[in-house]
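Can't paste images in this forum, so I'm doing it all in text. The chain is below; anyone willing to post the predicted structure tokens underneath?
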Amino acid sequence: MSLNNHLHVKKGDTVVVLSGKDKGQKGKIIEAQPKKGKVIVEGINKVKRHTKPSQKAPQGGILTKEAPLNASKVMVVCPACKKPTRTGKKLVNGKYVRACKKCGELIDESK
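Text version of the structure:
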């Protein structure tokens, strides 16, 4: 976990998993947790939770949901070149935005 609570990915980014049982799979980030250094990726790292009946889930039973994944295990997929890439910073209109290290296209602009 980094001390500055900064992640290289944001909510809504498409990422590819680098290691673990879901290695090579792509998904969209549902939630980023910078203080913990973790992200929750749609359809990746599914776990089963046994729950009692409640107001939220009146039936109860076994629910399947995504568990947090360490942010260092995912890499951003560039929207322009469609390849996993590291990110760099570019100065655009007095603001720094993330850019693809492979093709140079802006990552934040395309959202």
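The chain has a mean pLDDT of 90. The chain is about 0% helix and 40% strand.
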